[in-house]
Amino acid sequence: MEVVTITIGELTDFTGQAAPAVANITYVTQDVARYYNDQNLIPGARVKIAAYDTKFDPARELTGWEWCKAQGAEVIITLIPGTADVLKPFAERDRIVIAAMGANPDLFDPPGWAFGFSNTTIWSANTLWRWFTENRWDYSQGIPPKIGIVGWNDPSSVDAKKGAEAYFNSHPGEFDYVGAYISPAGTSTFKSEAVKLKDCDYVACVSGFAMPYFLRDLRAVGGMAPVVDLIGSMGSYRKFYSDLVGWDVLDGCLSTANSMYWGDPLPLVELLEEILYKYRPSEADEIIAGGNGYVGAGHMAIGIMEALRKAVEDVGAENFNGQAFYDSTENYSTALSPIWEGYPEWSFSQTKHWLMDDTVIVEFQASVQDLVTISDWLPNG
Asked: Is the bond preceding residue 267 a cis peptide, omega within 30 degrees?
């Protein structure tokens, strides 16, 4: 049987501000594709990942899209939520599917040539706020928590800020919102923002890379508030954060995840650990220490490969193209893949182009110097 090479493009960041978290996402995408090739899990096809370094520069996203298209990509993975929004019209034009590992709700309304293999950051953040009011804050005294927002002005962060403000406005009396202090992308000094937010009970951060710098400056002016991460990236920066500010500063900070964590006794987590040590043995311990970037993105990479496998089964490797992936993915459910044992059942449809419908809450805990999952799976909303 002739083996067909199927190219999947990926717009990543190896050298920009997001690289400490994003590089591991690209590594696991490559490793999962290699595993599927080595195990012949997509008969008649081999998968090639063509990765383009956007350097976390929005001006390079369309250039990267055209580069991936020139490599023959029929599917292109995007990692930063705003990237998929910008490129959706080009996906429609080129009939190349966006497989988004980070997304905003607008990407799916109306449904088009983009599928989200993660949760949307705004929906996850809304789930976190709902959990927070029910489990973390004592309202018996009639005093709501004082909340502020800090972060950068890149499109993804601005969308997260708007999402939080919409939630606050729709839940009057639950939060004492003192305002947002948004800085230019790349800022690593937050002294004035720290002074303005030092009396908050919690501060919501909309930029993963910025969070420890803000916490450092907040503690310097006497502010003791933990951070609530609104984009679900905190876990991917675990070592970067702890090296910069220490576990005592991180203690109590909250985030969200759409995956289980290293060491959880589930087939998918165990498979990703096996893949990591198989293909990156010299880096594996460092990658695990770094946080949940590899294992979290691994869940999405498995989802993409399983959808790809279904498409090839439906039309044959020799007939695979973006349209085949589109049509088959609209009918993909995790119930078709036993590897998802222990997770909620998630699926796509003609009107629902995102996969994951649930979120878990995670917390930095100084007592164990690690991220800890502190909730069951919670429905988004």
From this structure: no
